[in-house]
Amino acid sequence: MEGDCLSCMKYLMFLFNFFIFLGGACLLGLGIWVIVDPTGFREIVAANPLLFTGAYIMLAMGAMLFLLGFLGCCGAIRENKCLLLFFFMFILLIFLAELSAAILAFIFRENLTREFFTKELKKHYQRNNDTDVFSSTWNSVMITFACCGVNGPEDFEAIPHLPYSSLEKATPEACCQRELQSREGMFINKEACLSGIERFQNRQGCYTVILNSFETYVYLAGALAIGVLAIELFAMIFAMCLFRGIQ
């Protein structure tokens, strides 16, 4: 009976580690896609050091899970105590790091409100100054998602113009409609847009556009994160049980 139980534990351990292996492969692929994606996300990531760092952290986490899943599978099938202990310690560190990140995200979730983004935009945005990381990132977001400001073009009425653009209205160049939503895309009518003609402007706020675009994916990501944490927890339990059961 004890041998059957150990054998069952071994194959369950292999199964859970196979899922971790697949999860790491997916995370690795997602990180690579975010960095090399040619449709606009690459511009946003490159313009913001925090996002740039986050993308590489995603790559590193994916590679680590990929490796740990592989080692866990090998340790379970070969019943190698060293591999199992190595796997347990590293998966525990990853589990604690992910749990800490989830708690911090929950605590600081109030910083993702519409009011917070509106206040930061009005305080730091410098229109077409692409040497400023904040402004460049906002311009990339508005171009990529065909939106304007947090709530709409009215967010820019209190933001001063650059000296050489005194003839422009409040709407920045990034809010003008383009034939293709990228920095290389041709303007439909730039002069009319900057002079205040609304039909050549993107009038919808970015907060609503992005929220609608990612609402489904946020719940999916949350469910996936809970699933990953549960799999890691069970994998650690099985690893320790298998480790203690191997003679």
TrEMBL record:
<feature type="transmembrane region" description="Helical">
    <location>
        <begin position="84"/>
        <end position="108"/>
    </location>
</feature>
<comment type="similarity">
    <text>Belongs to the tetraspanin (TM4SF) family.</text>
</comment>
<dbReference type="Pfam" id="PF00335">
    <property type="entry name" value="Tetraspanin"/>
</dbReference>
<feature type="transmembrane region" description="Helical">
    <location>
        <begin position="12"/>
        <end position="36"/>
    </location>
</feature>
<keyword id="KW-1133">Transmembrane helix</keyword>
<dbReference type="InterPro" id="IPR018503">
    <property type="entry name" value="Tetraspanin_CS"/>
</dbReference>
<feature type="transmembrane region" description="Helical">
    <location>
        <begin position="56"/>
        <end position="77"/>
    </location>
</feature>
<dbReference type="GO" id="GO:0005886">
    <property type="term" value="C:plasma membrane"/>
</dbReference>
<dbReference type="InterPro" id="IPR008952">
    <property type="entry name" value="Tetraspanin_EC2_sf"/>
</dbReference>
<keyword id="KW-0325">Glycoprotein</keyword>
<feature type="transmembrane region" description="Helical">
    <location>
        <begin position="217"/>
        <end position="243"/>
    </location>
</feature>
<dbReference type="InterPro" id="IPR000301">
    <property type="entry name" value="Tetraspanin_animals"/>
</dbReference>
<dbReference type="InterPro" id="IPR018499">
    <property type="entry name" value="Tetraspanin/Peripherin"/>
</dbReference>
<protein>
    <recommendedName>
        <fullName>Tetraspanin</fullName>
    </recommendedName>
</protein>
<keyword id="KW-0472">Membrane</keyword>
<keyword id="KW-0812">Transmembrane</keyword>
